[in-house]
């Protein structure tokens, strides 16, 4: 058991409760607490905490602030569609619900600083105030002055305030070119397997012994640890699969101590879960239903979402898509060879420039103009097609279906360019339905 | 028009509403014809038929959507009740709270989805929750807008609803709030206040909602076109929503046009793990079309019919272009309106009694029109000379005959459809579908020609002759069901005969045992005798012959009989409607008009406008013989005509000269005068304008290859 989180200036019971709340993160918690200092002290203006998903960043920060009853504002930056919302939420947390009415509409950082100062003069801080910005990477997309401003907010508002940034990415990706106050960096490493085990076992099922649950968790981690270290996901998976684990016990075929038999029972099941419910191919509700049904009859497999890849398209849309695929993956110079009747023999090797010799499928789709698309379309489609308005509207509906993408800005009316956004498998399936051998027309497969 | 502005600029003048008195449909119909009274009747009939079609299609739509909507509703109710119960057992505490999401796969025609979503949200509002919002991609380009739309529709709509019972004092509050924060937390506040109101408010309000509505109804957000959404916006929105899922019972419905795997393309695992996605797949649109055709086109009750070509046009637009059932029905509507507008005799195209009534009231002019109908003329030719004279001179006689013929036409239809369905059931399961998989294919070929003369029919019959007994009996039994629903006499007779044949099949079972016994004795004549080569050959040949002819089992005999019977039915009843007198009254056949309207060809229209200006301008001066060209045509037409004579590069000066000559001739100047064909400023300006118009239309473009030249962008000359 690691040492208690300790910091002078706080009651011992509070710290004990805090230690209880942050299992396996005691070191990080005590470092952070040391950085924050005693409640009345001025703290460092900004602290930058980073670490992977579900590594306890928000949890530790929130626990400290809540358990020790420090004045704080927790703001999720995803939610803040504008900087104004961020300011509003901060002011509400510090100065009560009436505060934001002072902010002008579409307020800027300087408005915020002004109002903050105004309010702060009325109710000066006796403890350090904390602004926690979750998912701070979104700050980079907002106004350019926001991040540097927030980093030295203490200085700007002349108040005892500390900004804590929480994010999944490293500080190097944040640093603005114009320079700014460097925050203190604090890294939260991933939980180790043992730590995950410890944390997961804390939530054991009340009807079963912690030991049994512990053995279940270790089996679970054995399967999932290599693909997923997200605590939240693991907890979810544990909840979904525990009933299956207990099945033999319920039927009283196996005793709790016979872990090997239990393992043999659950392991294939968990493997299946990894391919389906973990990837959200099958929803968790369906997964549970399936488990219940399995008790009745063994058969009945659910098809995952990606099993339904088939798309029904109108006849000409199919050919338009095929033409788009050909235009995207064949060099324009080869069109003569594929679509002209008397093209003569063109050898692949000496016909092409050097850079065209690498596989076009490795390079990805290339943009092509509308004219080329239509020219190829008219030559691949087997009957004569009038250039009607609906042919053109089909192109734009393919764009809305995300099967084609328009390159450049979409208000370019004159000679728009497109890219084909479907995979080879998909286009092969489509061309099979119209009995068109697409591989014969692809330069890469010549 | 004058403005009070002193500055130069563009001004928009909206026509005053009085002037824009819209012509009603009736006026439009009457304008085109010379008999106002009849036109009015036609409009009425047309309107009635369309209303009938519309209600029929709506019913059909509801029926088809019922299954998927019901299961969706079930899902949402289940989720809502699980929100409700707030399970406190271990598993639900441990589980990550996911947002319940229904992925609704609806097929590639996005505009068609509107109707489904409409009925879905109505259904939801009636039975599950008043809080249903639908959003479209085009109004949510940024997260801010998406959020705003959701809040606006939820809070705004509810405010509007509450107006009725509450005084104005409370109204402004939520509106004001909405303006201040556009975030989910304000939605949260709103939701808790609203649900509290539901809980505390006395029974009056709750009864006005559905009775089974739960106290904390979920908030359903419908994303109508998932593919078109910006993935980033969607991801952010889902992440935000998942933060509030504990407080707000949110639920999503994704409208997907392509395939469910788009969800995985759009959302990374970190986001999709916040959702609990369940899949709902709707009927494919081809099946949908088949039902619509079955109900609307192959319907005896519906007097208006489509000819084969028109149906072909509509179906091919559907299959080749848009997969849109809505457009198909619109096409049907257009055909209906066109028929009643262009065919004065369509006054007879209505239910039986009315038609007979109208036939009695036909004016002399219309009787003349009947006489001119090709089908009627054919009918007259087949009559005796005396009758012929009478038909051509006596209006009353024509009216009488007309009534008889209308009745005959109805009878023809009554027999046609059951037999068509029978033929379809018999042939639709044959290998390679010689007569088509869908009933509309057989229908079209029957409409166009005598179906029994086609090769496909022959091969279908050949295949039927190879069919095993139990298969054939099963098909025939289906035919019996079809025929028994028909009321016409001939169909009843056919039904009787068919049942006889089926009874014979049953008897066959008992008979066949004995037959086999007999047969076992007869073969194996002596071949053991020593014979010469010639004789051997002879016997072998004989045997082959006998095998071919003799080996007919009773079943085969019966099968052939039945198929002959079916064939006779087909020959009797599936004659193309063109052979029926007065078919023009009911059948709409101008597929060209329909195609022009529904499947416009912009390039062809431009080409026509440029090369035959008379076609659009309808000015007498422009009317020319084919091949020649009026020199009074608009400038752009002249310039276009001249540019057709050039090669790939066009010398602008030569072009101008030629243009000026043509225009001078049009002005009627003396060809010998000195300034004939001279380029003056006006002509120059007109020429430049015409050329730039051509450039705008994409016929020429400027080029740097040669000075004072433009490049042609089209091929071919005149």
TrEMBL record, chain A:
It is found in: Nucleus. Keywords: ATP-binding, DNA replication, Nucleotide-binding, Nucleus. It holds the Pfam family ORC5_C. GO terms for cellular component: nuclear origin of replication recognition complex. InterPro entries: AAA_16, ORC5, ORC5_C, ORC5_lid, P-loop_NTPase. Residues 213-280 form the ORC5 lid domain. Its main location: nucleus. Residues 313-442 form the Origin recognition complex subunit 5 C-terminal domain. The keyword Lipid biosynthesis does not apply. Residues 21-164 form the Orc1-like AAA ATPase domain. GO terms for molecular function: ATP binding; DNA replication origin binding. Belongs to the ORC5 family. Component of ORC, a complex composed of at least 6 subunits: ORC1, ORC2, ORC3, ORC4, ORC5 and ORC6. ORC is regulated in a cell-cycle dependent manner. It is sequentially assembled at the exit from anaphase of mitosis and disassembled as cells enter S phase. This is Origin recognition complex subunit 5. The gene is orc5.
Automatic annotation (TrEMBL), chain B:
Its main location: nucleus. One of its GO terms (cellular component) is nuclear pre-replicative complex. Residues 603-715 form the Origin recognition complex subunit 3 winged helix C-terminal domain. Residues 1-348 form the Origin recognition complex subunit 3 N-terminal domain. This is Origin recognition complex subunit 3. It comes from Clupea harengus. GO terms for biological process: DNA replication initiation. Belongs to the ORC3 family.
């Amino acid at each position: 058991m690691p040492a208690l989180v300790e910091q002078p200036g706080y009651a011992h019971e509070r710290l004990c409760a805090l230690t209880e709340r942050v299992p396996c993160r005691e070191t990080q918690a005590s470092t952070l607490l040391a950085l924050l200092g005693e409640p009345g002290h001025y703290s460092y203006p900004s602290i930058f905490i980073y670490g992977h998903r579900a590594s306890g960043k928000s949890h530790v920060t929130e626990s400290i602030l809540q358990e020790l009853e420090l004045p704080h504002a927790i703001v999720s930056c995803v939610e803040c569609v504008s900087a104004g919302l961020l300011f509003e939420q901060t002011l509400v947390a510090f100065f009560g619900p009436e505060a934001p009415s002072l902010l002008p509409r579409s307020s800027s950082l300087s408005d915020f600083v002004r109002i903050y100062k105004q309010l702060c003069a009325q109710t000066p801080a006796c403890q350090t105030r904390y602004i926690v910005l979750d998912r701070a990477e979104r700050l980079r997309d907002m106004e350019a002055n926001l991040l540097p401003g927030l980093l030295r907010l203490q200085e700007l508002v002349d108040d005892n305030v500390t900004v804590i940034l929480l994010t999944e990415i490293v500080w190097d990706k944040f640093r603005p070119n114009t320079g700014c106050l460097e925050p203190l960096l604090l890294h939260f490493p991933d939980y180790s397997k043992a730590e995950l085990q410890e944390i997961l076992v804390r939530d054991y099922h009340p009807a079963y012994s912690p030991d049994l649950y512990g053995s279940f968790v270790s089996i679970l981690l054995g399967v999932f640890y290599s693909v997923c270290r997200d605590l939240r996901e693991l907890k979810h998976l544990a909840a979904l699969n525990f009933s299956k684990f207990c099945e033999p016990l319920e039927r009283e075929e196996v005793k709790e101590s016979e872990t090997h038999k239990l393992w043999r029972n659950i392991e294939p099941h968990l493997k299946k879960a990894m391919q389906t419910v973990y990837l959200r191919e099958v929803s968790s509700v369906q997964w549970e239903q399936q488990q219940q049904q399995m008790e009745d009859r063994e058969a009945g497999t659910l098809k995952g979402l990606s099993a339904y890849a088939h798309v029904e398209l109108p006849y000409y849309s199919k050919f338009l898509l095929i033409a788009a695929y050909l235009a995207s993956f064949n060099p324009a110079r080869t069109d003569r060879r594929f679509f002209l009747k008397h093209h003569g023999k063109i050898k692949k090797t000496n016909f092409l420039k050097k850079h065209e010799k690498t596989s076009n499928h490795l390079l990805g789709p290339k943009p092509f103009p509308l004219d080329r698309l239509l020219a190829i379309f008219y030559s691949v489609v087997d009957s004569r097609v009038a250039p009607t308005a609906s042919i053109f509207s089909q192109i734009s509906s393919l764009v809305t279906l995300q099967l084609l993408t328009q390159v450049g800005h979409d208000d370019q009316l004159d000679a728009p360019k497109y890219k084909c956004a479907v995979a080879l498998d998909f286009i092969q399936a489509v061309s099979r339905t119209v009995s068109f051998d697409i591989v014969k027309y692809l330069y890469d497969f010549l | 028009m004058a403005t009070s502005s002193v500055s130069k600029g563009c001004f928009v003048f909206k026509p005053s509403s009085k002037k824009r008195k819209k012509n009603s449909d009736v006026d439009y119909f009457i304008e085109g014809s010379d008999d106002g009274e009849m036109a009015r009747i036609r409009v009425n009939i047309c309107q009635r038929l369309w209303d009938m079609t519309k209600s029929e299609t709506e019913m059909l739509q509801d029926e088809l959507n019922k299954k998927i909507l019901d299961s969706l509703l079930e899902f949402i109710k289940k989720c809502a009740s699980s929100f409700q119960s707030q399970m406190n057992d271990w598993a639900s505490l441990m589980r990550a709270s996911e947002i319940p999401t229904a992925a609704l796969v609806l097929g590639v025609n996005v505009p068609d989805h509107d109707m489904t979503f409409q009925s879905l949200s109505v259904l939801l509002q009636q039975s599950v929750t008043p809080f249903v919002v639908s959003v479209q991609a085009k109004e949510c380009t940024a997260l801010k807008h998406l959020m705003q739309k959701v809040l606006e529709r939820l809070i705004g709509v509810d405010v509007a609803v509450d107006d009725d019972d509450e005084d104005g004092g409370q109204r402004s509050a939520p509106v004001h709030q909405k303006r201040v924060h556009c975030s989910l937390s304000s939605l949260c506040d709103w939701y808790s206040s609203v649900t509290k109101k539901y809980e505390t408010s006395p029974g009056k309000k709750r009864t006005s909602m559905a009775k089974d509505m739960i106290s904390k109804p979920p908030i359903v957000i419908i994303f109508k076109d998932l593919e078109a959404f910006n993935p980033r916006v969607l991801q952010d929105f889902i992440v935000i929503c998942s933060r509030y899922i504990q407080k707000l019972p949110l639920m999503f419905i994704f409208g997907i046009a392509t395939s469910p795997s788009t969800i995985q393309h759009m959302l990374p695992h970190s986001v999709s793990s916040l959702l609990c996605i369940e899949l709902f797949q709707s009927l494919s649109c081809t099946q949908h079309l088949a039902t619509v055709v079955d109900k609307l086109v192959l319907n005896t009750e519906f007097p208006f019919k489509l000819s084969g070509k028109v149906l072909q046009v509509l179906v091919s637009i559907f299959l080749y272009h848009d997969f849109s059932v809505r457009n198909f029905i619109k096409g049907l509507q257009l055909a209906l309106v066109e028929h009643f507008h262009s065919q004065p005799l369509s006054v007879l195209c209505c239910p039986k009694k009315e038609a007979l009534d109208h036939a009695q009231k036909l004016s002399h002019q219309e009787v003349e029109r009947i006489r001119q109908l090709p089908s009627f003329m054919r009918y007259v030719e087949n009559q005796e000379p005396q009758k012929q004279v009478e038909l051509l001179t006596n209006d009353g006689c024509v009216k009488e005959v007309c009534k008889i013929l209308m009745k005959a036409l109805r009878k023809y239809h009554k027999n046609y459809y059951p037999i068509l369905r029978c033929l379809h059931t018999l042939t639709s399961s044959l290998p390679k579908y010689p007569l088509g998989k869908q009933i509309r294919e057989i229908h079209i070929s029957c409409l166009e020609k005598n179906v029994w003369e086609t090769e496909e029919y022959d091969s279908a019959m050949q295949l039927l002759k190879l069919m095993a007994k139990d298969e054939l009996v099963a098909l025939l039994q289906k035919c019996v069901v079809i025929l028994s629903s028909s009321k016409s006499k001939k169909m009843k007779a056919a039904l009787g005969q068919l049942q006889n044949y089926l009874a014979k099949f049953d008897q066959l079972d008992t008979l066949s045992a004995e037959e086999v016994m007999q047969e076992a004795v007869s073969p194996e004549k002596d071949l053991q005798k020593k014979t010469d080569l010639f004789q051997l050959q002879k016997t072998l040949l004989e045997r082959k012959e006998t095998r071919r002819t003799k080996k007919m089992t009773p079943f085969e005999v019966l099968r052939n009989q039945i198929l002959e019977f079916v064939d006779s039915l087909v020959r009797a009843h599936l004659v193309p409607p063109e052979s029926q007198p007065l078919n023009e009254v009911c059948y709409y056949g101008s597929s060209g008009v329909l195609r022009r309207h529904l499947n416009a060809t912009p390039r062809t229209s431009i080409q026509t406008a440029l090369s035959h200006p008379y076609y659009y301008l309808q000015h007498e001066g422009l009317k020319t013989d084919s091949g020649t060209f009026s020199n009074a045509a608009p400038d752009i037409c002249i310039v276009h005509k001249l540019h057709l004579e050039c090669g790939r590069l066009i010398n602008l000066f030569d072009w101008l000269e030629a243009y000026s000559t043509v225009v001078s001739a049009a002005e009627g100047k003396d060809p010998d005068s000195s300034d004939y064909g001279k380029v003056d400023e006006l002509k120059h300006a007109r020429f430049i304008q015409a050329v730039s118009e051509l450039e705008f239309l994409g016929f020429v473009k400027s080029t740097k290859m040669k000075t004072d030249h433009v490049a042609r962008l089209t091929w071919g000359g005149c």
